[in-house]
Amino acid sequence: MGLAQKPQPMQPSTHQITAMKIRRRVLVGDRVLIGAVDWAGGRGVIEGVFERRAEVADPPVANVDRLVLLFALDQPQPEPATLTRFLVDAESTGIPFVLVFNKVELVDDKTISYWRDRMKSWGYDPLFLSVDQKSGLSALEETLEGQTTVIVGPSGVGKSSLINALRSNQNISEEDPIHKLVEQNSKWFGEQRVGTVSKKSGKGKHTTRHVSLLPIAGGGFLADTPGFNQPSLMKVTKKGLAETFPEIRKMLAENEPSKCLFNDCVHLGERGCVVKGDWERYPYYLQLLDEIKIRESFQLRTFGTKREGDVRYKTGVMGVKQAEPRLQLKKHRRVSRKKINQSILDDIDDELDEDNWFDVKQRSRKR
């Protein structure tokens, strides 16, 4: 069993070939079953993918234990709408996450207090740090050991720089299995490439182009991901959107045992709704709700109400669940003998009916 990694450049991509054979996409972080191992060449063939305990869509990473939502207080400045989309996306995964603000050295204490109070009103308790000055990292390091952590955020906020700082800040003992890799100057332990913020737009440039899973001392992995400003929110539903806002959860909890008059209430200020619109992010909630309604309406027209998943799980080697592609209905299944016999009888009946009709027609002509 192994851990799926991004193939190294200038080498044949066995990951891509195998993914086509097993008819399933292999994600970074997948636990996979490897066969036909070429020990000399350091290659193998992925023969199966084990069941995922968690998955992140943006970016696509499997078996994630924790998310780190990284934003900068300046260069680029945080945008409330973008920040809300990232928070909603993180809430929808059900994976524990921490909100982190970087580049505190570029702003004054008043700005830090402003964002701390503002995030508290949203229902979050963020961490503030400076990757450049390597301050405030210890509070974040405590949550990383032994876990697979994905760092996400817009371009230019310092994701790769944070990973470099966290990995260079570790004391690796000689007994640690990865100590030898560090001595060999393994690519796994090289620093991630970093970029600068565009002077023209004030936004970050896309320096990281792919998802990389990087080991850390003491166990665990860090995932460096490409920056993007608009999470797709494809897994957020119209009914589930309200649960991704701590403000709505708080209002519903404070009004218990009273509830909204209608069970399918989406909190648009209808009669009997206990959620009021006097909170900062309510306009963002309405905007996202409209977006999801349009998407769900399109999916309903295109795919219908029921779509069978393309993956099913079966118990494989040593009782471990493995994923395999689900066959399309009535395409790869053998026709039963009963159905074949019935079709033959139907054809015979049709021929008899035609013969009888011909006889009746001939008799009518003779008369």
TrEMBL record:
Keyword Oxidoreductase: no
Residues covered by the EngC GTPase domain: 62-229
Pfam short name (any one): RsgA_GTPase
One term of GO molecular function: GTP binding
Coiled coil: none
Superkingdom field: Eukaryota
Assigned keywords, A-Z: GTP-binding, Nucleotide-binding
CP-type G domain sequence ranges: 53-231
Nucleotide-binding among keywords: yes
PANTHER family according to UniProt: SMALL RIBOSOMAL SUBUNIT BIOGENESIS GTPASE RSGA (PTHR32120), SMALL RIBOSOMAL SUBUNIT BIOGENESIS GTPASE RSGA 1, MITOCHONDRIAL-RELATED (PTHR32120:SF11)
Protein name per UniProt: EngC GTPase domain-containing protein
